[in-house]
Design goal:
The structure holds two protein chains of two kinds. Chain A is an alpha/beta fold. Chain A has eleven helices and twelve strands. The radius of gyration of chain A is 20 Å and the shape is globular. Chain B is 29% helix and 22% strand. The chains are: A alpha/beta, B alpha/beta.
Chain lengths: 328, 279
């Protein structure tokens, strides 16, 4: 028998709560803008994608709790400096007052600080920490992590981690836009466009994986243009890098639901409300339908049709967990 | 300095010339006391005759990013044999790994232990660190450049405001809590990338610097169809903001920085020289 998987989605305004609850959200996660710090305190750049004020966060938590939904605060920068950790110390006190249910963390320095302060926070490990295997999960559990959000791993690798850690909550990214890399290992910066207006206006400071590159293939030291290859890799780059389609694991819900996975994350902080709702509705239909399919192949067929009807284009086999081959 | 990467990093003779020129640079007063390490991904490269292996103080052997290219025990034995003959210490470099990759590393650790129970091992993933601490606690663990996070976007120098540019110039070593964690792991050496905009690290660790390929990102998406193709082919990504271009090789992306202009007043005491774009 499969377990019913929860769906986690981002929230940035209190008046989104009801729509998202109705659309199927079981859990909310959010980043927060700090009123006095001009740089992002999580992996998504300011001001987009984050809850704009502490007052708004308080409303979100209150409303979400009234409907039985937990709210998790994302503090998942790849690393924090010493002064940033001091800013977080104060922010975290506010989060505690508001009743935020858990912190989503990735930086070891932050985890060390939280362990030292012993304030009883529930911790979820962000995929930005890149827990790639059962031993790294074991490593991070030393900090009291109760849930691990896995990075881009194959379904079999996820199952292996589940087998080694049967008592741990596991969350998997199921629908992710824009990022083709391991987010936690990537050192491209998301917040450059805030700091060079002239270049930003010309579209030059967008996220590096969204830029339109001229691509040249170098084969054994000879620069050449393999048109077939460039066309296919260029198309793949375009699909992945230029937001043509989400990297999706809808089809994997079949296996994941039989593997004891607790939650699916819809990566959505940079989406507008309509896009977010569409993603959530799609994922909810996948999760709700999985019990009615005895065969994975039939479920896969169903999901691909659903993807097309939900987003208006084919999924292009842009699977989040499985490697994308350059040549068709 | 403009880099013609497609020629300079795939022509062996020019690579050897570049290695010698680089080594002469390091003989200057500014680099006195700086170790020179030669990084190779296959032991055969050490015996092909034209690399000035003798000019280097240490051999780095292994891979950093792709677990599919973890060397065999046979290759490690070859590297050990060469190092023993030349009287050079060996550092084993390990990549980002899944459980599958960690299983492949295990016999390498076993063989390395037979050779030197206090050998250096560069780790680029916390699972490997955990594994070594439990199974091979005598190894000297070096925290690789994947784990010592920096803000490496090559467009940082385009930011006009000096204060804001400074925000992008630090590393995780600026965090006392992270340094506390490193001390708790009994780690004495960390590794960094040679960023044009970086500030010299001041934390109390010995520091290695990789040269000349700055690692930016990696993924599960390999651009090659097969591992054989990967060995022969790489891609250049050009964009007006990306200087001389990004190198996309295997699963990872890099840019090149040939300047070593921040060694002064830093704790950098080792340079790890990579002839080829690393895997």
């Amino acid at each position: 028998m499969s377990n019913r998987i929860k769906i986690a989605i981002s929230i940035s305004e209190a008046d989104e709560v009801m729509d998202l609850v109705r659309d199927g959200a079981d859990e909310f996660y959010c980043g927060i803008n700090h009123p006095e710090y001009s740089f992002a305190l999580n992996r998504r750049e300011m001001p987009h994608g984050n809850v704009p004020t502490l007052e708004e966060l308080q409303k979100i938590v209150q409303l979400a709790h009234e409907h039985g939904r937990p709210v998790y605060a994302t503090l998942n920068k790849t690393f924090y400096t010493g002064p940033e950790l001091e800013i977080l110390r104060e922010l975290i006190d506010h989060l505690k007052e508001f009743g935020v249910d858990a912190l989503i963390v990735s930086d070891i320095g932050l985890m060390e600080m939280l362990r030292e302060s012993a304030n009883g926070w529930r911790l979820h490990l962000s995929s930005v920490a890149a827990p790639m295997n059962s031993w790294s999960v074991k490593f991070f559990r030393q900090y009291g992590v109760e849930r691990v959000i896995l990075p881009r791993l194959h379904t079999n690798e996820i199952k292996n981690i589940r087998a080694e850690h049967p008592d741990l909550e596991i969350e998997v990214l199921a629908l992710a836009w824009y990022c083709p890399n391991y987010d936690g290992i990537c050192s491209f910066q998301h917040d450059l466009k805030s700091f060079n207006d002239a270049a930003y206006e010309r579209g030059l400071m967008d996220n590096a994986c969204c830029l339109e590159y001229q691509i040249e293939m170098i084969n054994d030291g000879d620069p050449q243009r393999d048109d077939f290859f460039i066309n296919s890799i260029g198309k793949r780059f375009s699909n992945v890098y230029l937001r043509m389609s989400a990297a999706c694991e809808g089809c994997s819900v079949f296996q994941l639901s039989h593997s004891g996975i607790n939650s699916l994350k819809v990566v959505s902080r940079l989406l507008n409300r309509q896009q977010k709702r569409r993603c959530l509705q799609f994922m909810k239909k996948c999760v709700d339908a999985v019990e009615s399919f005895g065969k994975e192949s039939e479920f896969t067929f169903f999901v691909k049709k659903l993807y097309k009807s939900s987003f208006g284009f084919d999924c292009n086999n842009n699977c989040y967990m499985n490697p994308v081959k350059a040549r068709p | 300095m403009t880099v013609n990467t497609q020629l300079e990093y795939h022509e062996r003779d020019r690579l050897v010339e570049k290695a010698i020129a680089f080594l002469r640079t390091l003989n200057g007063e500014m680099y006195r006391g700086v170790q020179k390490a030669l990084y190779v991904q296959a032991a055969d490269v050490l015996t092909e005759g034209d690399l000035p292996v003798g000019e280097f103080d240490r051999i780095y052997f292994g891979v950093e990013f792709c677990e599919r290219r973890i060397p065999s025990v046979h290759q490690l034995e070859k590297a050990i044999s060469i190092c023993r003959e030349d009287g050079k210490p060996l550092t084993l470099v390990t990549p980002i790994v899944t459980d599958w990759g960690l299983k492949r590393l295990n016999p390498l650790f076993g063989r390395l232990m037979e050779y030197d129970e206090h050998a250096e091992v560069v780790v680029n993933e916390y699972g490997t660190l955990m594994f070594l601490r439990e199974k091979f606690p005598s190894f000297k663990v070096v925290m690789g450049r994947v784990l010592i996070r920096q803000k490496k976007d090559p467009r940082v120098p385009l930011i006009h405001d000096e204060k804001i540019r400074g925000y992008f110039s630090g590393s995780v070593l600026d965090s006392a809590y992270f340094c506390k964690f490193l001390h708790g792991q009994n780690t004495r050496r960390v590794e960094l990338d040679n960023l044009p905009h970086a500030q010299p690290p001041q934390a109390d660790f010995s520091v290695s610097l990789y040269y000349p390929f700055v690692f930016i990102t990696t993924s599960r998406n390999c651009v090659a169809e097969t591992c054989d193709e990967c060995a022969r082919v790489h891609y250049m990504l050009y964009h007006p903001t990306m200087g001389d271009g990004l190198i996309f090789y295997g699963r990872s992306q890099f840019f090149v920085n040939l300047n070593l202009n921040w060694l002064e007043n830093s704790r950098i005491d080792r340079i790890v020289y990579q002839f080829y774009v690393p895997l």
